[in-house]
Amino acid sequence: MMTPMRYVVVVLALIISLHYLVSFTSDSYGRVTSLESLKKAVVGSKPDPNVPPYKVPVSDEYYVHKNTTSPLGRKANAAIVMLARNSDLNGVIISMKQMEDRFNKKFQYPYVFLNEQPFEDKFVQRVSELTDAKVQFGLIPNEHWVQPAEIDEEKATESRNKMIKDNVIYGGSVPYRNMCRFNSGFFYRHELLKPFQYYWRVEPDVKFFCDIDYDPFLIMQDQNKLYGFTISLYEYEATIPTLWSAVKEFIHENPELISPDNAMSFLSDDGGETYNRCHFWSNFEIASLDLWRSPAYSKFFDFLDKKGGFYYERWGDAPVHSIGAALFAKKEQIVTDTSLSNTVLKEMHTKEGSVGVISPKILTMKVTHV
Fold it and tell me: Which UniProt keywords are given for this protein, alphabetically ordered (predicted)?
């Protein structure tokens, strides 16, 4: 006959055996009941200064498994945004199929499509068939897209001709300049985006090579992040010869608008005297619309727009967004997702040297910041 103590020993042995069995068969249970997790639950967690930020994993609470809804039943107020023409339909289909298969069939975030021309019925029908999420199609106001009347066309034409002669990519294109100006200062003002707080920019003809089983929007929201990117590049110098001088002029006139804990060190290697041409690749960005809607960025864009550099040169939305985020957000609010950086590919057919090379300042949205 067993004594009470023996019963206790047997029960403890069974519990320990079950614990190890479930730990080996369930990753989530193993993580939650690990000694490190229990230690964090008791004494709290502090970042290890010896561990690089990009090695800090995304918390399990943001993951979704088995095609269920968003973790904890939560969703951020966010949309997937795509600027596309009717002629981009095939590329849009490729991107949407990838986006749905790898991410959005699990999370069901709405799509917003924008075009400077009305979308054709064929485009609307075909795109709407690719997702169960809500899809909206918007027309860009003419004044947000076309070259402003105050631009000196003779001067702009002379600049474009020089860029064509110098073999600058898109150097002769007015529509490309329209797009850069729109993405820099107007897309977030569109009526369809006014209800949203976050957006994920997706381009036609992109491929996602890995499943994205966690919600980057919720990470941005919960951790108060404002701008997320995957890689940084050097901007092509011939497209922005006077951009930095305009930026320095703005900073001099509006020092109170600059964040005290900014990311100037990403933009400049000499304290802001010169621009090192590093920029976040804006073809893929997940960001807070409130960053661009802020009075500081709005004043910044209006200042740049009056300079005419979008047309007299070829200022791109990537350096403009990068400089804006670096100046007006705290550097800890600018993040990169090193897992997503390995999932996205956009094939670019460019002339050698036109785009630049990958910057050594790639910032290595897994709790990683500038």
Answer: Signal, Transferase
